[in-house]
Amino acid sequence: MFERFTREARAAVVLAQEEARDQGADRITATHLLLGVLTGPPADAQRLLEGTGVTVDGVRAGAGDRVLTDTDAEALRGIGIDLDAVAAAVARRFGADIRRPVRKRFRAGHIPFDTGAKKSLEVAVRNAVAHGDRSIRAEHVLFGIASCDDASVYATIETMVPLADLRSRVEALLRPAA
C-alpha cells in the first residue's frame, strides 16, 4: 500500500515517525502525522494548513497541553467543575510544568502507530479510492487526520482553526475539478 503514496505523503509519514522518535514517544500519533504534513515537502495540504493558521509551533504547543476540548470544558462547567480553576490550583501546588517530561529521549527501533494514526491512514486510503485517485497524496492524509476521531489531534487543531472549517476546506481541495 505504501507504494501508492506520493513523495509528499510518504515524507509526511516518515517525518511523523521522526517526530515521535525525537519526542521519545512510544507510538506515532495523528498529531505526529499532522506535523509530518506540515514539515514535509510543499504540497496543497501544507499550503491549506498554513492558510488556516495551523502551524508547526501551534501544533507542538497544543499537543500535550490540552487533553479536553472546549466542548468537554463546557460540559464539566455544567456540573460545577471549572477547568481553569483546577489547572490554576494544580499549577500552584505542583508547578506549571508538571505534565512535561523531565527530558526527551531519542527512541531507537520500530515505533508503532497508535489507533488514531492508523485510522487516519486507513481513512486516507479509503478516501483516495472513493475519489478514484490512483495515488494517496498528502491531502488524503490530512483528510484522514481530520476524520480519524482522535480527540487529542482534534483539540490541538481547534486551538488554531475550527475543525469543521478545516474538514470542509480539505474536502473542497479533494473534490475533482468540474
From TrEMBL:
> What is one Gene Ontology biological process annotated in the Swiss-Prot or TrEMBL record?
proteolysis
Kindly list any coiled-coil regions of this protein.
none
Output the InterPro entries linked to this UniProt entry.
Clp_N_dom_sf, Clp_R_N
- The residues covered by the Clp R domain are 2-178
Keyword Coiled coil included in the entry's annotation: no
Q: Which UniProt keywords apply?
A: Hydrolase, Protease, Repeat
GO molecular function, one example?
peptidase activity
Gene3D superfamilies membership: Clp, N-terminal domain
Keyword check for Secreted: no
**Alphabetical list of Pfam families matching this protein:** Clp_N (PF02861)
Highest taxon listed in the record's lineage: Bacteria
Name of the molecule in the record: Clp protease N-terminal domain-containing protein
Q: Supply the source organism for this entry.
A: Tsukamurella soli
Q: What taxonomic classification does the UniProt entry list for its organism?
A: Bacteria, Bacillati, Actinomycetota, Actinomycetes, Mycobacteriales
